[in-house]
Predict the structure.
Amino acid sequence: MNKVILVAHGKLAHEMKNSAEMIFGELPDFESIEFLKEEGLDTVQEKISAAIKDEAASYLILTDLFCGTPYNASCAVAMKNPECEIEVVSGMSLPIVLEVASMLSGSLQEIVNHATSIPCDTVKAFKQQMIEEEEDF
């Protein structure tokens, strides 16, 4: 069983889950963790550790920024829990969260591989896209 933990600066993770649920429906295997201004790395690590409740589950932790506090705390938790299958991926976006939600029955590695390939398909510049589409005709 795969579970997803969203971790981000401020309330972004909570709102990302709320937005995904507007589109996808209830996401019971998702948990969101906020990182507030007054908190530090240790506090975020404690929150993430508390979210890893089911040792039989595999966990994908999606964070907002590479090398930001949520990412660093997530990596620290993953390294401190080698008995758990935990993957950490940065660059969380709504398209990635929705794709992950649709793939939860797959293997954790398949989910990670797909999630890391999504940005090139979802980040588009309007004018550049128009030029590319015109060239195709």
Observations:
- The chain is about 50% helix and 20% strand.
- The mean pLDDT is 94.
